[in-house]
Design brief:
mainly alpha; Arc Repressor Mutant, subunit A; Tetracycline Repressor, domain 2; 2 domains; 12 helices
Length: 234
């Protein structure tokens, strides 16, 4: 005979879920299917809990992605910083580039303006270091922000182009027929492009980020400091 005070329905508590478990499962889904297909519902199925349980830990998919990026940034070792401001900027930008090269999907998430407000302290330290280097080199704080933003655009663009190219090759997607394109060039109208047509695939595959970064930083700083009125800056 049932006891009068016996509970009805499901007995016991739902399985405990930690933020660490959630982030680990989210990384698995991203590695397997890509970040675009990550959803709270799919993540809940992966972990074996209800979607409502996850909302106790994350607000939405965007919040989850930034938690992942923050956790990743916390694991990136800070580079040894040279005393020269220019070299500090280059060393920090290179650290950002190398980190994003290992996690290119993060670069896509961070393409929207306003992402700075969502970053954790470890990632913000990298931004702060570039700003400080630019200011120590003679830029105003406003110019330092422009220096960072331009370096960021250059870095993220390079990462995304290479990541998308690698994805196409890995997926055996049919690339554009470069041979047909180059063979149809009118040398009288495009002599320089026609002259390097045979070398184009090899040249395009080369890693020129370090050289480009140095030239870019030099140009940005020179432009910023030369535009300052006499008596300001260095």
């Amino acid at each position: 005979m049932p006891q009068p005070n016996a509970p009805h329905g499901r007995i016991g508590r739902p399985p405990a879920t930690s933020r660490r478990q959630i982030l680990a499962a989210a990384r698995r889904l991203i590695d397997r299917d890509g970040w675009e297909k990550l959803t709270i519902r799919r993540l809940a199925v992966e972990i074996g809990v209800g979607a409502t349980t996850l909302y106790h830990h994350v607000q939405d998919k965007e919040d989850l992605l930034f938690l992942l990026i923050t956790e990743y940034a916390d694991q990136i070792p800070h580079p040894d910083l040279p005393t020269d401001p220019r070299e500090r900027i280059i060393a920090t930008a290179t650290a950002i580039h190398d980190a994003l090269a290992d996690w290119p999907w993060a670069a896509e998430v961070l393409t929207a303006d306003g992402f700075i407000a969502r970053l954790g302290e470890s990632a913000l330290w990298l931004v702060e270091t570039i700003l400080a280097g630019a200011i120590d080199h003679g830029c105003t704080p406003e110019q330092a922000v422009h220096v960072f933003r331009n370096i960021w655009y250059y870095t993220v663009g390079e990462i995304l182009v290479r990541a998308h190219s690698h994805r196409r090759r890995a997926g055996n997607e049919r690339p554009a027929d470069r041979g047909a394109f180059f063979s149809s060039l009118d040398e009288s109208r495009m002599p320089h492009l026609a002259a390097v047509s045979d070398q184009w695939p090899t040249l395009a595959a080369q890693d020129t980020y370090p050289e480009g970064l140095r030239a870019f930083v030099d140009g940005l700083i020179a432009q910023a400091t030369s535009a300052m009125p006499p008596g300001q800056g260095r």
